[in-house]
Amino acid sequence: MGTTGTYLAVFLSNKSSPRWRAWYAMSEEERRATDEVGLAAVKAWDEAHKDDIVYMGGPLGPTKRTSEAGIADVVNELTVFVVVRAPSHEAAARMFEGHPHFTIFPCDCVEVMPLLAGPEEG
To answer: Which residues contact 41 (CB under 8 A, 6 or more apart)?
Structure first.
């Protein structure tokens, strides 16, 4: 890799946490208003980082786990993902400080990890 690495950022969210319980307790009107503010903030974050976003990713849906035991429906905390470029792991993580997914929406955090091989290397 050159001076800029590629990083996977995965937002995590425990759907039974107090933050989610508060989200579900909102009225439809409150939730719609929060969505409006939050989506505008996410759009602004995307625009501010457009040169660093390699793949926009998006929300993640229900999960199926395949193992030796077969296929099963499972619940995990993976919520949203995006792939970014940054000069360091630290810089990639700092890109997400104050992100709307956990300052406005009820996600808990984002975990950022380097992709060890890109498409051109694999």
So the answer is: 100, 103, 104
Residue 15 token pair: 């759907």
Q: Whole-model pTM?
A: 0.86
- Are the C-beta atoms of residues 65 and 71 closer than 8 Å to each other? yes
Domains in the chain and their CATH numbers?
Answer: 5-114 (3.30.70.1060)
pLDDT digits 0-9 by tens, 37-95: 999 999 999 999 999 999 999 999 999 999 999 999 999 999 999 999 999 999 999 99
In 3D space, the residue among 117, 111, 116 whose CA is nearest the CA of residue 9 turns out to be 111
Tell me, what DSSP letter sits at residue 34?
Answer: H
The string over 69-94, giving b where at least 16 C-beta atoms fall within 10 Å of a residue's C-beta and e elsewhere, is eeeeeeeeeebbbbbbbbeeeebbbe
> 78 with 12: CB under 8 angstroms?
yes
Phi, psi at 22, each rounded to 5°: -65, -40
Using DSSP, state whether 12 is helix, strand or coil: strand
